[in-house]
């Protein structure tokens, strides 16, 4: 196997660079939104009312959200199992047990974490909000995928279920915190990839199995593995440092970029453009046609 990370690095697990890329992107998004809130009109117009209460803004198409989620789901199998590159490689433990076994295990853990997170988000948000929401389920699924990516090949399936369950509540908690702070991320990208991705890094340091680590990274005995699997705290310490380094690096590099964009008045469109819609002001036409009949439907339901 040729993993994404260096074989000489003692405290990393498969696909760790993938998680790092996701986290860097989402921390950048957090910095961008924070800069807008501080230096401009804050969140999107209408996102919060005058009393500070959350106002749910209408999305474009739930159907397209689900379609896009399934496309990402399919692509994640190339992202996680596909990272092995070489399939036909036997392990020393036997000719019938090799790289193909690790690839299969990676596909299973990826699926279990995502599906567990989706179901947990479905019922969790139902209990908290009182209704079902397909968009929440899609984001929960992706949160589970983001969390399991770091340790997908070095944990057992049962641990992947736990990973997905916790990642769903991490996402829900991060969204609640974002609402309280009036932080507006239309895609929940920071909460999803930043929050769930951070949990995934910690999760790997807790549940990475020694046998799987040695199989995926052969030739270097003594590699650290999960704390809860008897491997001590070395891997956990390294992963905590990794999270801090990612946040620091992105804060310096992207914070500078966003400051420059703000000074050049390129970070956010004007209030007039926002109200009119960029489909009209920047692209020359309307992409969506809405018929607002919610009040009429409510009256009909009330009359029944």
UniProtKB/TrEMBL annotation:
Bilayer disposition of the protein: Multi-pass membrane protein
Main location: membrane
TM region positions: 62-79, 236-261
Molecular-function GO terms, alphabetical: ammonium channel activity
GO CC terms: plasma membrane
UniProt key word Transmembrane: yes
Domain Ammonium transporter AmtB-like positions: 42-288
Entry keyword Lyase: no
Localization per record: Membrane
Gene3D superfamilies: Ammonium transporter AmtB like domains
A GO BP annotation: ammonium homeostasis
Entry-linked Pfam families: Ammonium_transp
Record keywords, A-Z: Membrane, Transmembrane, Transmembrane helix
InterPro entries tied to this protein: Ammonium/urea_transptr, NH4_transpt_AmtB-like_dom
Protein name: Ammonium transporter 1 member 4-like
């Amino acid at each position: 196997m040729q993993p994404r990370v260096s074989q000489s690095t003692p405290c990393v697990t498969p696909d760790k660079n993938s998680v790092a890329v996701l986290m860097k992107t989402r921390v950048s998004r957090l910095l961008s939104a924070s800069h807008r809130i501080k230096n401009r009109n804050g969140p999107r117009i209408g996102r919060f009312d005058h009393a500070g209460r959350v106002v749910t803004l209408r999305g474009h198409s739930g159907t397209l959200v689900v379609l896009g989620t399934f496309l990402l789901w399919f692509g994640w199998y190339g992202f996680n199992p596909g990272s092995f590159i070489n399939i036909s490689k036997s392990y020393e433990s036997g000719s019938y047990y090799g790289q193909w076994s690790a690839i299969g295990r990676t596909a299973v853990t990826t699926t279990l974490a995502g599906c567990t997170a989706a179901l947990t988000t479905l019922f969790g948000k139902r209990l908290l909000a009182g209704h079902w929401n397909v968009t929440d389920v899609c984001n929960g699924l992706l949160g589970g995928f983001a969390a399991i990516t770091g340790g997908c090949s070095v944990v057992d399936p049962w641990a992947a279920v736990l990973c997905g369950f916790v990642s769903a509540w991490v996402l829900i908690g991060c969204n609640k915190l974002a609402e309280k702070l009036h932080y507006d991320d239309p895609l929940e990208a920071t909460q999803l990839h930043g929050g769930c991705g951070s949990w995934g890094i910690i999760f790997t340091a807790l549940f990475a199995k020694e046998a799987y680590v040695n199989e995926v990274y052969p030739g270097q005995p003594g590699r650290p593995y999960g704390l809860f699997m008897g491997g001590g705290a070395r891997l956990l310490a390294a992963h905590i440092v990794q999270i801090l380094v990612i946040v620091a690096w992105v804060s310096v590099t992207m914070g500078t970029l966003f400051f420059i964009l703000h000074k050049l008045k390129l970070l956010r469109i004007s209030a007039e453009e926002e109200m009119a819609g960029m489909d009209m002001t920047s692209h020359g036409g309307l992409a969506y046609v809405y018929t607002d009949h919610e009040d009429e439907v409510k009256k009909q339901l009330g009359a029944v």
